[in-house]
Protein 1
Amino acid sequence: MNRRTQLALIGSLVIVSATVGFISGRGTAAGAADPLQLASSIESGVGIFASPGETPEIMQREAALNVAAYEAQDTEGGGGAYQKTLIDNDKLKVILVGYKKGFVRPGGMKRRYNTLLVYVDPGRYTITKTGANTPVKMAPHKLAPGSVVFHRKDSIVSEVHVNEDYRVLYVEMK
């Protein structure tokens, strides 16, 4: 498969996943009137929350933590949750991860690649520790199906507690 075909396939996969998420999640997105409406915060669960990724200031603070270890390649993305690699080539890796209620996704490691997360189901989780392994008390995150979050290469993964089952596509750009 040539590069153009692969990129077209990935683009189609992301669009189809987002569309399915919008359609199936219309009633589950906490009463969102317009599924394309941007949410005011990640905690609202209404509409779509698209993170701009980590800011330069956050990346500098994380660099000062001297976290050098990357996620293990066989569990990157899901952190040990069920996952299936859909595409893996020299430019891109797409992983479908299925998180189960009660699963704790470990943190304190760096992301190997720029990563785009596309939520297939309503994402319900709570960040319990920052990338610096510091306990935090945060409101549970509620992401509507089709929500997209971007994480930069070398950003540090936070520890996450899964509140309800959900699936997410990890699109890693090598």
Note: The two ends are 18 Å apart (CA to CA).
Protein 2
Amino acid sequence: MPDYRPRKTLFNPELRRRGIYILPNLLTTAALFSGFFAIVQAMNGKFEVAAVAIFIAMVFDGLDGRVARLTHTQSAFGAEYDSLSDMVSFGAAPALVVYVWALKGLGKLGWIAAFIYCAGAALRLARFNTNIEVVDKRYFQGLPSPAAAALVAGLVWVMIDNNWSGEDAAWYACVLTIFAGITMVSNLRYYSGKDINLRKSVPFMMVAAFALGFALVSSYPPGVLFALFLLYALSGYALGLADWIGRRKKIARSE
């Protein structure tokens, strides 16, 4: 007898009813557009605009996950889409921006440094997706790709703001780009901030600290943002050193 049961095809009404959550994925799309826009502006020689676009992509990327958790609209599609968006905005875009601005003049070393960063971002995102259920949520394993992108874009922004050309800053950009790429694939711990609950009350001093932070950033955005993300990148090495000293002390006590 012929089988008249509904088949799970593309035209099955059950599958057509499945959709995606618009709000978090709209924010992810905005982050993706900002990264793409940064690449286009770098190709047009507008490197300062490109650097700012990467920071804007960071804002949207930080919002999409928070919004998804607050509105209970997390999905497997959203997680995959976010990773692909991150690869463009925080992997390919910073590498291309810094290469066209400063590293191109270094020849083979320049594109190797840019590739190290790009490969580091890809490996970092792949490891994050596979280890998301087994790592401590309070810490990232390796420097997060948005922070690495902010480090590279911040250097471009602050150098241009101080009238440095890409040729003058080529070696600084090369060292920082390789540093960011390697740190992304390291096993260093970085505080994630995911244990902060926005729906709970906080001390008054916390609000005052946020207000002070906004005032500092608004006073000189390129310099303050670059300094903040440089300190964050170095914080992982500080935590690693503290862990190493703690292990050495435990070994000494046991002996």
Note: The first strand starts at residue 139 and ends at 141.
